[in-house]
TrEMBL record:
Pfam (any one): Aldo_ket_red
Organism encoding this protein: Paraprevotella clara
GO CC list: cytosol
Oxidoreductase recorded as keyword: yes
GO molecular function, one term: oxidoreductase activity
Coiled-coil zones: none
Keyword terms of this UniProt record: Oxidoreductase
Domain NADP-dependent oxidoreductase: 7-298
Protein name from the UniProt record: L-glyceraldehyde 3-phosphate reductase
Class of the enzyme per the UniProt entry, highest EC level: oxidoreductase
Keyword Oxidoreductase part of the UniProt annotation: yes
Record gene name: gpr_1
Enzyme Commission identifier(s): 1.1.1.-
Length: 314
């Protein structure tokens, strides 16, 4: 099996509140439902957990910390983010937001700390270096940045002897703009991990939904993807054909594709069975022909799933 960090477990849909699980995903999950999910992941060596202050305004972090606090600190890898849009106007808003995360996780350091989006690269990037040097953050990354912004962040940090260690962007069969923009190649060249979020397009590529079985009505994801289901069904049919060969589902095909492409997919986990599915997907290596077949099918349906929060990469 590939290393245990070839999949990240995402907690965007954990907790409730602004930009939280109930609003975006149409669910409402607490400690009781999520403890078996956390335990299943850890039992399978999946110990890399991704959160952000903005997910439910601390709710996701608080929920995740309920479980991580009971682990040996070195046994769990915690990733969370500074989101410029909710920054205060203190002298050091990045350190302040990080302090909140450190308190919620009851830890002295965060393994990977991200700038969530490129609101102002020149302004926010310099705040990261002292956090690494002071030991409060082990590694730093950027999310939703384009190639020019990533290079600029690296330029600013490297003057302080700090380097970008990861990039986290929306990347799926339906949305490959980071690849087309050369970001995947840049990351590979510079030993930077590329974390792919929304690999399943919030469930639209899971094979569970189609025109007869739409995504939850009234949720943001339902509004986004339900109108696109007639086209998406055509891609899912190809995913299903390839999956049948390996005895896996379309969702697992999407994960296997992302791993075969050299990225680290982030999957939102809300059930132990999803963890088991991920473990199985990690064991599948798709052929070059299968990858091409999937990508051609995706290009042919011509769907653009760029999120409202994302700037174009190209």
């Amino acid at each position: 099996m590939k290393n245990q960090n070839s999949i990240v477990l995402g907690t965007w849909s954990w907790g409730t509140g602004f930009a939280g699980g109930d609003q975006v995903f149409g669910n409402n999950l607490g400690v009781e439902e999520l403890k078996p999910v956390f335990d299943e992941a850890m039992a399978n060596g999946l110990n890399l957990w991704d959160s952000a202050v903005v997910y439910g305004m601390g709710a996701s972090e608080t929920l995740l910390s309920t479980f991580t606090k009971n682990c040996k600190r070195e046994d769990v890898v915690i990733s969370t983010k500074f989101t410029p849009q909710i920054a205060g106007d203190s002298e050091n808003p990045v350190a302040d937001m990080l302090t909140g995360s450190l308190e919620r996780f009851a830890t002295e350091y965060i393994d990977i700390y991200w700038i969530h989006n490129p609101a102002d690269v020149e302004k926010w990037t310099p705040y990261l270096a002292p956090l690494v040097k002071g030991g409060k953050v082990r590694r730093v990354g950027v999310s939703n940045h384009n190639l020019a912004q990533i290079k600029r962040v690296e330029e600013i940090l490297s003057k302080e002897g700090v380097h970008i260690s990861a990039v986290q962007n929306h990347y799926s069969l339906l949305y490959r703009s980071s690849e087309k923009a050369g970001i995947l190649d840049y990351c590979k060249e510079h030993q930077i991990d590329f974390w792919a979020y929304m690999v399943l397009e919030q469930g639209a590529l899971s094979g569970k939904y189609d025109t007869a079985h739409p995504l939850p009505v009234g949720s943001q994801r339902g509004e986004t993807y339900n109108p696109l289901l007639p086209q998406i069904e055509k891609l899912v049919a190809v995913m299903r054909t390839i999956g049948n060969k390996y005895g896996i589902t379309p969702a697992q095909v999407a994960l296997a594709w992302a791993i075969t492409k050299g990225t680290t997919p982030i999957i939102g986990v809300t059930k132990p069975s999803q963890v088991q599915d991920a473990v199985r997907a990690m064991q599948i290596e798709l052929t070059t022909d299968e990858v091409k077949m999937l990508e051609d099918a995706a290009e042919n349906i011509g769907v653009d799933t760029r999120g409202s929060w994302e700037n174009p990469m190209i």
